[in-house]
């Protein structure tokens, strides 16, 4: 188990990585799934043998409220159907923490429940916000869970200039689920999970 990293350089590196992903040209992405709520693309990850996913959709709400529902905090467990528990293990500053969370089994439990320990950082970006994270090898793995690993991930939330009550939410996700899994099952689950993320988020913001 590694000691906790110094948060400032890790946060800076993470932000720079996400901004770089955000500048990848459209031609490098291939559409993986499209619904009325969101479009999901993918491209081979530079970090591991799976894919980097990009998801994008317009969400009807202001940027701060949307990001408050995504980043670690009291809202996330209320609406995210995939997440089954979340604990803040360490807090460095108001916008920077280490959290441990668990996810439900997927695809008729072909994908068993997973546990993740992530460093999370939220910062301003252009007129909106970026909330991003990366997994750490920290803390004991709990029984009955496989420890997954999130390579640099994040969500950009930017208000629409011509419609300030709406925001463009763009996510970059590359999750290594680990364990003995067929890659095709992982790819199916990832695209569906991201689309469901948008529909669940929109429903909760309307209530």
Automatic annotation (TrEMBL):
Residues 10-207 form the START domain. The keyword Ribonucleoprotein does not apply. Keywords: Lipid-binding. One of its GO terms (molecular function) is cholesterol transfer activity. SUPFAM superfamilies: Bet v1-like. GO terms for biological process: cholesterol import; cholesterol transport involved in cholesterol storage; intracellular cholesterol transport. Transmembrane segments: none annotated. Pfam families: START. GO terms for cellular component: cytosol; endoplasmic reticulum. This is STAR4 protein. It comes from Leiothrix lutea. The gene is Stard4.
